[in-house]
Amino acid sequence: MSETMIQCRGVSKSYRKGSTVVTPLEALDLDVPKGEFLALMGPSGSGKTTLLNLLSGIDSPTAGSLVIAGSELAKLSQRDLTRWRAGHVGYIFQLYHLVPVLTAFENVELPLLLGTLSKKERRERVETALTLVGLEDRMHHTPGELSGGQEQRVAIARALVADPPLLVADEPTGDLDRDSATKILDLLRALTRDLGKTIVMVTHDPRAAAAADRTLHLEKGQLLEQS
Ligand SMILES: Nc1ncnc2c1ncn2[C@@H]1O[C@H](COP(=O)(O)OP(=O)(O)OP(=O)(O)O)[C@@H](O)[C@H]1O
C-alpha cells in the first residue's frame, strides 16, 4: 500500500467579507498518496487557492483536520509550523514571484538563508536545483534576462531547493505560451517520476490537467473526481 502524503478530513474554511461569510471549502475530504501528481480544477472563486494555502500550512482551516507528510498541522505551534513549512512544502506561483534584482542563483538560495547550512552547502544545493530544472547555464542571470518559461524554472528550483516532499503549484503554466507550458509540465512530471515528489497543481487548462495522474474538480466546497 502506498504511503499517504495528504489526508484532509472534514476540512472547512470560511472568510468574513463585511457582513457576509464566504465558505469556499465545506467538510472536504481528500487523500493524496505520496508521489501522486494531482490536478485541481474548478470555477473562479471555488476555493482552489484557499485549499493550496491550507495544504501548505500558510493558512489554517476553520474546522477539520489536515495531516500532511505525517504531521497534524493543527498540533504544531506557530514556530514549528514555520519550520515544518520550510522543510516540507515548496510553493510555485503563476507569476513566479522572483526578486527582480537578484540573480537566478540568489533567488533559489533565498529559502536556505534562514537555515543552518554553510555557504558551501547552500551553493551545492542551489546548483543541484538549477541543474535539475536545466538552468545551470543561467545561474547568474536576473529574471529580466530570462524568458517566462525560464523564470518559472527558477521558481521551481527555488521550491525544490530545500528538498520538500510536497510541491503545490497555483496555475504554474497560466502565463506561458504552449511550448513553454509543455516543458514546465514535463518537468513537473519528471519530479514525481524521478524524485517521488507529490504535486498538487491548480489549473484552468485541461491540457495541463491531462499531464497529471488524477484530476479533481472543486464544486460547492467539495472535491469531485472528473469523469
Ligand atoms: N483572505 C481572504 N479573505 C476573505 N475572503 C477570501 C480570502 N481568500 C479567499 N477569499 C474568498 O474565498 C473564495 C475562494 O477564493 P480562492 O482564491 O480560493 O478561489 P480560486 O478557486 O482559487 O479562484 P481563482 O480561480 O479565481 O483563482 C472567494 O470568494 C474569495 O473571495
Automatic annotation (TrEMBL):
Gene Ontology cellular component terms for the protein in this record: membrane protein complex; plasma membrane
GO molecular function: ATP binding; ATP hydrolysis activity; transmembrane transporter activity
Key words, A-Z: ATP-binding, Nucleotide-binding, Transport
CDD domains: ABC_MJ0796_LolCDE_FtsE
Family matches, as Pfam families: ABC_tran (PF00005)
Superkingdom to which the source organism belongs: Bacteria
SMART domains assigned: AAA
Domain ABC transporter: 6-227
Assigned protein family: Belongs to the ABC transporter superfamily. Macrolide exporter (TC 3.A.1.122) family.
Protein name: ABC transporter ATP-binding protein
Organism: Luteolibacter yonseiensis
